[in-house]
Amino acid sequence: MAYIEFRRTGMVPDHFGVRACMMDRLLRLVTHVALRPVVWALGAAAFALLAFAGPTLAAQRPSLAMLDLLQPGQWEVRDRDLAGGRSRICIESGRRLIQIRHMREACRSFTVQDTADTVTVHYTCPGNGYGQTSVRFESAQLVQLETQGIAQGLPFNVRAEVRRVGACTS
After folding, report:
1. How buried is residue 106: exposed, middle or buried, by Cβ count under 10 Å (0-12/13-18/19+)?
2. Across all residues in the chain, what is the average pLDDT?
């Protein structure tokens, strides 16, 4: 009855319940009208993400795919900063080049960059240091490698050309 009287007279009655009811309705109306564009925009953004990004996310190439293009076998590492600095390693996968100074260690890694021709990975080997390696693809038998970090308590910094020289020898 008080609500009808309020509508007819335009005056706010003193009854607390009616004021609270009116304030509640006014708040709901303002909130609903004010948030409508925000809710609409969020809904449109979610639709766009699912409609356009969904298929591309599913079609992405596997992580560090460039390293899988490298042929297994014996590879020669030519240090560019050390005259005559050469060594040979046998790898079954190009992914082994990431931890060239921590080859036999189980390390945690984080991919920093992963493109068609360059891979950069930061890794941590609990109790034996860490490193960050960048591998730039030139061919399935030739890459440029830069790696730096700490191994066995000592710093290392290597810039090298790494070239496949043949099959692994036992």
Report:
1. exposed
2. 78
Distance (Å, rounded) from C-alpha 65 to C-alpha 46?
30
Distant-in-sequence, close-in-space partners of 68: CB < 8 Å, separation ≥ 6: 62, 93, 94, 95
- Positions of E strands within the chain: 73-79, 86-91, 108-114, 118-125, 129-139, 142-151, 154-166
Q: Has residue 69 got a pLDDT over 70?
A: yes
**95 confidence band (pLDDT: 50, 70, 90):** very high
Where does 60-168 have alpha helices with state H?
65-68
Block residue for tokens 């596997």: 62
Mean pLDDT of 3-9: 49
Measured CA to CA, the distance from residue 151 to residue 154 in angstroms comes to: 5
Neighbours of 135 (CB within 10 A): 24
